[in-house]
């Protein structure tokens, strides 16, 4: 303890330290000076009383994340296999889809396909709000009534959006596996699908693990957009708390902290597993 | 030759099925398509002249936001990368803290935080708030890109430069940065396309960009699908233009070296 204090006291200030501290002090003092005229009474007890609402929002965010990851990985994997296949039609299909999705904003994609899926495709499949009210399992998994159906279609949209990015990552990794592996496997009598499934994909997925992890954190952050089509996720519960209690500052700070904790723990978790996978496969 | 024909048959069957499914989905619903009423939002011909429609104004604002945030985020990225490479521990810690915080929260939350907390205190308007949030968000990624580019320059270059008697700052500026710059072009194109995509989120604080224009037009006319598809097409063409510009710059730099 004494050593730490001694180290702090004896710390030699580098020029970069001085500049950084000066900039920070300037920034904070500007905020403080301009906030003199701006009166805001902090009141942490009211928004903290709404913690249940934030937790429901967190739960819905996690549900969205899992649905979008499930669809994103499976659909992305098949798109990647489309793109490396020799078939022109599949190849063209994959290229067009990926090119389209990667070049439009997630918000616009969500606005197009959310209404499309929830209003045209879901009724055709028989996924109506009544179904979500009648089945307890669905209610527990996705939420009640209309919100369950909305959450699923938003999750599907986000998954379709992320799948293009997952597909590109997986395709790059598959391309990086040496061609000798294909030839050896085909020479041993495996057919094409078996080669991909048993020889190529295990090597490729171990290689692209870090970028997949990064993309899945981006997917988690992208779920916040679903609040704009009134899916009750964490940001939406923030909006609800703000509109009902008018404690703007506290609510948004709480939402930001929850997101930060979620993403930060996920980053650490992925880093831990990255080292394990590196030791095992590479 | 035989294989080729088989392949064409397969691919045409697949494409026809896909188009049929799409046609089924788009036609058998009860949505009345009215494409003819969308064109006037692109451009109008009146009194012997072409007049720009609402989409063009929205696009102008979007391009303005994106270009200014590219510049600002590059500046922020360089500053944060410099702080990360500096010898001082406080500067290092600040750079690390900044990058961790910005990378681990969604842009939407950052926009709400800035717009509802910082903007009223500092008296910023929503347009500037949008630009600042986007550049702060993307600046973290740019700083990581610059860090990676500088680290990928061979260590021997630093040592050779030191042994020639050149100091640290001058080495960085004259020896390392020109080599790192070449590696920066492709990721910076990526960043600018990302900025274009994130700039649509600015519409939540009612900056009049392309997405906001679309939302307003939809609430006026109820042409939901047509307008969103038109806007998606505009965003797609904008980011394709960005990609093409990036490729041209990359080629130019390769020629020069």
Could you name the key traits of this structure?
heterodimer, A: about 280 residues, mainly alpha, MetI-like fold, 14 helices, about 80% helix, globular, B: about 260 residues, 2 domains, two-stranded antiparallel sheet, 9 helices, 2 strands
Report on the architecture of this protein.
Chain A is mostly helical and 282 residues long. Chain A has a domain at 56-234: Orthogonal Bundle (MetI-like fold), CATH 1.10.3720.10. Chain A has helices at residues 2-9, 15-34, 45-49, 51-84, 88-102, 106-125, 129-134, 136-142, 145-176, 179-187, 192-207, 209-222, 234-245, 248-281. Chain A starts with a helix and ends with a helix. The model of chain A has no long low-confidence stretch (mean pLDDT 86). Chain B is mainly alpha-helical. Chain B has 2 domains: 2-50, no CATH class; 52-256, MetI-like fold (Orthogonal Bundle), CATH 1.10.3720.10. Chain B has helices at 2-27, 54-85, 89-103, 107-122, 126-152, 155-163, 168-198, 210-221, 224-256, and strands at residues 43-46, 49-52. In chain B, strands 1-2 form a two-stranded antiparallel sheet. Chain B is globular, with a radius of gyration of 24 Å. Chain B starts with a helix and ends with a helix.
Largest sheet of chain A: none
Distance between the termini of chain B: 43 Å
Q: Taking all residues together, what is the mean pLDDT of chain A? A: 86
Contiguous runs where pLDDT drops below 50 for at least 5 residues of chain B: none
Mean pLDDT of chain B: 86
Spell the H/E element sequence of chain A. HHHHHHHHHHHHHH
CATH class division of one domain in chain A: Mainly Alpha
Major β-sheet profile of chain B: 2 strands, antiparallel
Q: Give the strand content of chain A.
A: under 5%
CATH superfamily of one domain in chain A: MetI-like
Count of extended strands of chain B? 2
**Total separate domains of chain B:** 2
Structural class of chain A: mainly alpha
Helical segment count of chain A: 14
* Span of the ends, CA to CA of chain A: 41 Å
The CATH topology of one domain in chain A: MetI-like fold
Count of helix runs of chain B: 9
Which architecture of the largest domain in chain B would the CATH scheme give at its second level? Orthogonal Bundle
**Beta content of chain B:** under 5%
